[in-house]
Amino acid sequence: MPPSDPRSACSPSAPTSRCPPTSPASPTFHAAVPDPADHEPIRAQVPLGRLGRAEDVAETVAFLLSERSSYITGQDLVIDGGLVPAFPSLTG
After folding, report:
1. How many helices (H) does the chain have, and how many strands (E)?
2. How far apart are the C-alpha atoms of 70 and 17, rounded to whole Å?
């Protein structure tokens, strides 16, 4: 892969790894909660007022793999619409 290819950041031969860790949910939210009527009480708890979308994670990963994030290292980004800070008990 050419050096400009974002996937090269995750290559085992890369001098430093900027490959963001991702933890895909299994089962996914919509598989776990298939009835849209059940989404509202969950959505109401999210401070940003909506459920997350795959694009929310994809855009973050794309940014982390881009040169625009070249000074970011060793971070764990939580993409949750503010849910964890709203419920500190969720962090352990």
Report:
1. 4, 0
2. 11
- Residue-wise pLDDT tens for the chain (92 aa)? 444 455 555 555 555 555 655 444 434 666 777 888 888 888 888 889 988 888 888 898 899 889 999 898 888 788 888 877 766 665 55
- Give the single-character DSSP code of 46: S
User: Cα–Cα distance between 57 and 20 in angstroms, integer?
Assistant: 11
* Residue in 80, 74, 77, 83 with CA at minimum distance from that of residue 61: 77
Which candidate, 42, 44, 79, 76, places its Cα nearest to that of 58? 79
Cβ-contact 56, 63 below 8 angstroms: no
